[in-house]
Amino acid sequence: MAVQPSAEALDGKAIRARMNEQLTPDQQQTLELHFFEGYSLREIAEKHGKTVGNVRHHYYRALDRLRSHLFPPKRG
């Protein structure tokens, strides 16, 4: 009997797939490291030789982009 993935695992895969469709590679990497691997923004900056400001920029742009796709503004 094959083991079926849990609903939570499927949701995580769906979220990552959606994230990868909508974000730039830098934005993807920043969110992956922060949310899924637990790095702080400072640690991400140090790991990749970037400034904290640059990483923060990618982080907030990524959140804004995902938010706009998940919760589009209501019209009318």
From TrEMBL:
Q: Which CDD domains match?
A: Sigma70_r4 (cd06171)
Q: Which GO terms describe its molecular function?
A: DNA binding; sigma factor activity
Q: Which Gene3D superfamilies match?
A: Winged helix-like DNA-binding domain superfamily/Winged helix DNA-binding domain (1.10.10.10)
Transmembrane annotation, as ranges: none
- One BP term from GO: DNA-templated transcription initiation
**Superkingdom of this entry's organism?**
Bacteria
Task: Name all RNA polymerase sigma factor 70 region 4 type domain ranges.
Answer: 21-66
Full protein name: RNA polymerase sigma factor (Sigma-70 family)
Organism expressing this protein natively: Granulicella mallensis
Lineage of origin: Bacteria, Pseudomonadati, Acidobacteriota, Terriglobia, Terriglobales
